[in-house]
Amino acid sequence: MSLSRDAAVGAACALGGFVIWGLSPLYWRLLDAVPPAETVMHRIVWSAAAMLALLAARGRLGELRRALTTRRLLLALLATTALIGCNWYLYVKAVADRRVLDASLGYFINPLLNVALGMLVLKERLRPPQGLAVALAAAGVLLEARLHGSLPWLSLALAATFSLYALLRKLEPVDSLVAVGAETCLLGLPCLLALAVLGARGHGRFGPSEPGLSLLLMGSVVVTALPLALFSEGARRLNLKTVGFLQFSSPSVKFGVAVLAFGEPLAGRLPAFGLIWAAVALYTLDAALSRRSTERPVAA
């Protein structure tokens, strides 16, 4: 029963993080006047400040210090930091370039890579219905890629960086809150220095002359640190293939935002997305039936 409760908490955390990520293009579109690189630097700096304050309030700065001074953990954190930094930039750039559907495709590919990594690296196994779901989703992704006429490099880069990030976060023995704090702090110092240089040269968009944009840049912490912390906690409690399929919720929400809020053209993409949604439905049904069978009381 305790394992079931733990899995339920993990699923709730992961799903909450994915839904926030799915809705985040609405927030980043408000920052269209700010270059993507500057937006990403602000989201990192404010997230680092928030995470340091939270860790200090909980008396856990010592854990952060140990993680950053233990060579093996530091190397792992440097790798996850580089991956999540690249992912954040690519994502904000995709929103700025009006390519939210391409970002959605990337995050549909992402769970497939999670499942593959789970099987290859963590030796996780799939039941036959889950294997069929993976095949359906793969077919949808391949169809979508074919409609591009060439390899969708942005989508693939988004998928690869976050899949590898998820795997390393699963493997490294660092508490999720401490890990997010370490990652944002490792990126925070160089970003703070870069923003200071921008401000000194008069190129930055943060300051009293633009209070609206400044508040939005500070508020980016909500759509940066919060979903990352929720995801990290979910990844710690769940196996990677479960995290992978829960992750389909994020690109589904992004798809809705791209089409309904931003009016991006579907251009015949519905068949591909339909295959992927069928895969999600099959996997969800199989998971529900499997859990029901394991919880069924045994006759005396």
Brief overview:
The protein is mainly α and 300 residues long. 80% of the residues lie in helices and 0% in strands.
Question: Explain this structure to me?
Answer:
With 300 residues, this protein is mainly α. Helices cover 80% and strands 0% of the residues. The chain has 13 helices and no strands. It has helices spanning 2-29, 36-57, 61-69, 71-96, 100-120, 128-148, 153-171, 176-200, 211-219, 225-237, 240-246, 249-261, 270-295. The chain is globular.
Radius of gyration: 20 Å
Query: What are the secondary-structure elements, in order, as H or E?
Result: HHHHHHHHHHHHH
Quick one: how many beta strands?
Answer: 0
- Average pLDDT reading: 85
Shape: globular
The helix fraction, in percent, is over 70%
Number of helices: 13
Q: List low-confidence stretches.
A: none
Which structural class matches the secondary elements?
mainly alpha
Straight-line N-to-C gap:
20 Å
Proportion in β-strands: under 5%
* Oligomerization category of the chains in this entry: single chain
Largest sheet: none
List the helices and strands and how they pair.
Layout: H1 2-29, H2 36-57, H3 61-69, H4 71-96, H5 100-120, H6 128-148, H7 153-171, H8 176-200, H9 211-219, H10 225-237, H11 240-246, H12 249-261, H13 270-295
Helix pairs in contact: 1-10, 1-12, 2-4, 2-8, 3-8, 4-7, 4-8, 5-6, 5-7, 5-11, 5-12, 6-13, 8-10
